[in-house]
Amino acid sequence: HNNTTDLGSLIHKTGLTSKKSTSAVLHRSLHHDPHQAVHAKGNYLCLSNGQKIFDATGGAAVACLGSNDERVARALIQQLTDGVSYCHSLFFATVAVEQLASLLTSSTNNIMTRAFFTSSGSEAIEAALKMARQYFLEKQQPEPQRTHFIGREQSYHGTTVGALGVGGHRARRKLYEPMLSKNASFVSACFSYRGRLSVDEIDKAYVARLEAELEAEFQRVGPRNVVAFIAEPVVGAALGCVPSVPGYFAAMRRVCDKHGALLIMDEIMCGTGRVGPAPTAAYPNPLHAWQDPSVGVAPDIMTMGKALGGGVLPVAAMLVNERIVNVLAQGSGAFSHGQTYQAHPLACRAALEVQQIIKNDDLVSNVREQGALLGKLLKRSLADHPCVGDIRGQGLFWGIEFVQDKAIKEPFNPADGVATGIHELGMRPPFNISIYPGNGSCDGERGDHILLAPAFNVTKADIEHVVGTVTRVIETYF
Ligand code: PLP
């Protein structure tokens, strides 16, 4: 196949991408500048070289309404001219922030009673870790010995040192390992493709094994030392859109409850309608991944981000359930954490408008409908490809994992650069498509996958375009 060296020289020859760096910006690569985006509308990003790119991932599952939605623009202008552009949330409340919090807490049937807003997902995770710790310090019978967090292998919860410390993604942790919390450990992810003992291990047995593993980890660190177990209901970038096996989260909840620990769900990537959760009697208009019957249990603390503000402005959130809020209310009476830009009025106004559009346009139904089509068409056109090991996902959140040997699920190695190579190829004419590359899905270091996470308002024709183009990119690459 075209390895990265071949692709690198190709790119160099065409001069279409990855020009030598002349930028003053500290981009990811110090040698090549990324493409210059000059204009965006709907699903498309236009580059300075005239290319028109279909954004099939909305960045990293962020732009849930596509780009430059005029309704959001109008709301922001109104907020900037007639409302409040900034004020410190310590001293002032604003209508936009209050309305956004109400919309989010009521979307949980008020199981979660308070929302705390940050500028990024990583910061929402930091807030969640601190909130969980503060809960145990302020309970009527305080448990100050609870300092340990249990996460999952190959997981990612953010880039700041606290959030990275509860993520089990080995490659992402590697450079900073000595700086990361010693009070964190990891159990296996719930990962159908690679986690089952064999294809014969049925859901029930697999879940029972993972439940026993979590229980054993609680016992190893001392059950009364654990603050919380943290996991994504549908794993995003770290594994490539992996839904949990039905019954898994109920089992994890049982273990947490048994030992009095909290359950934190990270819905930064998979939440806010992204996975098109199925309606139930309790949640006829579900928004959160945990409301899907396959997850079926509510967290104590949850985080949201990405599609919360649709990429219009940086905004993320932590939602907290009543039990925790009550403990703090009867304890110190304050959450002992704060940031300059928390609950930023303009960012929250953007999120409010985005969330109202999702609700009023019933976009989660479209996510379910187009998501089912996306999954069906991807499987139809790529399942038999010799380098496609697995196609998995839910809603408008699909991952394709690549393997060198399908029979034994042999992953690619980091040096192969498969996912980034496929991304680069996709960005070139005639494909002109942006897909999200990920790696580490095998063991945290090896294993490549791509993610597809188009906007919630895509049409059938958009989905057919995405599948047709991605198929041609993959077939050309290998
Ligand atoms: N948690 C998950 C599941 C994520 O996917 C991400 C970002 O990719 C984060 C947390 C961190 O969010 P941010 O990049 O906004 O800090």
From TrEMBL:
CDD domains: OAT_like. Keywords: Pyridoxal phosphate. GO terms for molecular function: pyridoxal phosphate binding; transaminase activity. It holds the Pfam family Aminotran_3. InterPro entries: Aminotrans_3 (IPR005814), PyrdxlP-dep_Trfase (IPR015424), PyrdxlP-dep_Trfase_major (IPR015421), PyrdxlP-dep_Trfase_small (IPR015422). GO terms for cellular component: cytosol. PANTHER family: AMINOTRANSFERASE, AMINOTRANSFERASE CLASS-III. Belongs to the class-III pyridoxal-phosphate-dependent aminotransferase family. This is Aminotransferase.
